[in-house]
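Supplementary material to the annual report.
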Amino acid sequence: EIVLTQSPGTLSLSPGERATLSCRASQSVSSNYLAWYQQKPGQAPRLLIYGASSRATGIPDRFSGSGSGTDFTLTISRLEPEDFAVYYCQQYGSSPRTFGQGTKLEIK
Amino acid sequence: EVQLVQSGAELKKPGESLKISCKGSGYNFPAYWIVWVRQMPGKGLEWMGIFYPGDSDTRYSPSFQGQVTFSADKSISTAYLQWSSLKASDTAIYYCARQVAYSGYMAYWGQGTLVTVSS
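Predicted assembly:
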């Protein structure tokens, strides 16, 4: 089973700043099958990025994904107030699929 | 419009059985894998497994194998997650999600079902 480790656990930033979230895999993720989700309190997760770098439908271009192999990054170029939430990475290159433990992005 | 609508919150006692549902609409229900995800109170997301309504193909995560059962009724476009004997540690929000075709990520999610197991 691939273990995904996200860092930092909590990221405190201000609106307008740039956020960089990391997801590291215990072994290489096949075909860079890595997705990112956003979850706000009381809501279901929302797909942001798939295939490590492809934005899902309707996702603003301030969200971008990068990386390959075992190291992946989600970048939010300029934080909007609605971006403060918990972010999860998920690998779907091997079974069982697994999620990272999440990064909480909070307002500084 | 693709929608997944889950059944309402449940309060059960340890040892009781439970079946929660996830009704799909706006797409060809048998043709897409349904994913089940657990979120324990204040914790992260856990991938429980997947179910293909078309032929009932099922894959459980090792952590959940033998603990839960997935099923579906194609005639009413509804997937199910069931327990035969609940434990307090099953207390969580359970999400169903639709896997994107030929992939393993989820673009559509249900609203979640809160299951509380307490004596």
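The mean pLDDT of chain B is 97.
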